[in-house]
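Thread: quick sanity check before group meeting

JM: Hey all, I'm pulling together slides for Thursday and realized we never actually wrote out the predicted structure for the chain we discussed last week. Dropping the sequence here so it's in one place. If anyone has concerns about the input, flag it before I start.
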Amino acid sequence: MGNREWYFVNNNGALDDGGNNPGIETFSDCPIKSMVREVIQNSIDERVNNKIPVTVQFSLFSCSQADIPGMGQLQGVFKECLESLNGLKRSQKHVRDFFEQGIAKMNAKINVLRISDFNTIGLTGAETGDENGHWYSLIKGRGSSNTKTSISSGSFGIGKTAPFACSSFRTIFYASRCGNVDSYVGVSYLISHRHREGSKVYKTIGTGFYSDSQKLNAILEPFGMDGFKREEDGTDIYILGFDYPHNVIEEIKREIVCNFFITIKMKRLVVKVGNEVIDASNIGHYIEALDDEFNNIKNYYNLLNSEDCQDEDTKVIKLDSNDYGKDIIYTDDDNHKSSIQDGECKLYLHRGPDLNRKVLMTRENGMTLFEENNISSISFTGILRITGNTMNAIFRDMEVPTHDKWTTEHRLGDEAIYRKAYSGLKKYIRQKVKACFSDTDEEKIMAYGMDEFFSEAGEDQGRTKISVLEHPVKVSVAKGKAVKQRKKKGQDISQAGGNDIYAPVPGGDGRDVIHRRTQKKDNSDNKQKQRFAYVPLDGNRLRVIKADIRSGVYTVRVKFPARRKAARIKFTVHGENGEFNINIKKATSNNHELWHDKNEVEISHPKKDDVMFIDIQFPFTGSLIMVEADYYEAK
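JM (edit): ok, ran it. Output follows.
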């Protein structure tokens, strides 16, 4: 048994570790969110007793350098790292700043965040260093995970670096009890540096371990700080230098609620933050207390609670593999083949005004993954919960390390089956949304806001003509979105974006009227030579209303923001494969034809606050997809 100290071993002339650790950088943009997601989902994956929830506890406290094992020595290592940077042309200022600030912070009170889990297995193999154990995978494994089951979230092993992104020292202590074995070890992700040991000087690896052996084993003793003592199996993470604003606890609670409300509601997870307990009995109160910017989360939570009270606007659909999945054959690591079975996922859908038209994607452990969009023009929201083994295995394989996207790009050799599974799932969701919420008469579209439209039309009857059908129909109103910050006044008309509306899907002969947004404009006409600047308009000033799906005629209402020589409205279709411009067949107002070219309509000499209704006809008809309308003024 050697001395208990930090060991940064000789790299023996191998690769140098720099200051930009790829794993840590993956999570550095949203460190608190990433830490909460990765730590809790790892705990859920290690659940022991399925009859009771996993409990995860967050506790923030401060201590001195003397209270942390080896902290004085680690400060000396920081100085060695700083000295090694001297004279290096490639050294980066932010790396130097990291070490300088770290040295200073070690002389003051050090903030520590402890994260402990309960009803989990703990770090197996700590006493032997077994390469198949949890301890080895967490402490010494790179790019690998030992929690890869069909329902687990971990598959890359990169998520374990997320807590390091929250440490001012990139240093963590891990402690565990597993059966009768208590253990702890420190891990520090720094840089390769020159280290002097007696008369010998050598270059180290960038990762250091607080251990009692040069073999970098676990120290087989209980470990605790701030009076905490573990009395049951589980794991403790001590993030050293957890330096965040005073409201960081509120941010932690918010990320817990937004990312794990499903798991908590299912009674699989309880989280303690300081003296507060978040569980199934009060998760609704935490959801309700969220700011308005989290209204989508509130809608998802309400939908989750509606399973027992379905009606024409709320549906919960269990998978029928005849609709999706039975022809998708998955081969696991043991070469065992399986197909998706009935009931392997459940789709929650709700229709109503001003909803986000997205589906929140989740897998078995309930952590929110991402929102799938480009589904339907219908105002709805939804949740997809994947619960079956085969579906979980397929979509787990497609998850990126940050668990917020599915992609087939890293599944070399199996791209076809994953593409089929993902594209098929999106098609299945679209079909279910349409089947649940579209009227049986395909010529009728359920929508909201028509009273406002017709009242506005009545006020302006002397000025313009409204295109309507002989027989009354329900039509779809698409309100203008909030101004998108990616657009700036003065942006050229060749650039894109705008207010969402709806237009038919091109098909048949309509295919030849679609052209890529990047296609260059024909400047042979003098009108095309005139320059126009984008002006953001909300739904009160620019709105496009579906009028007749049979003829492809839309009525556009525009309230001009200023007096100008000319103005233009541009239309863009959004589809799965990108953005496209959509050609106009005819544009009229008050029975007078307006100038139009490709996807643009021009209005001459508009006056401020004048209201005009324009009938736009596209040369095709069909079902609805998302479209944007943009307003431009002559410079």
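AS: nice. Residues 415-437 form the longest helix (23 residues). The longest strand covers residues 624-634.
JM: adding both to the slides.
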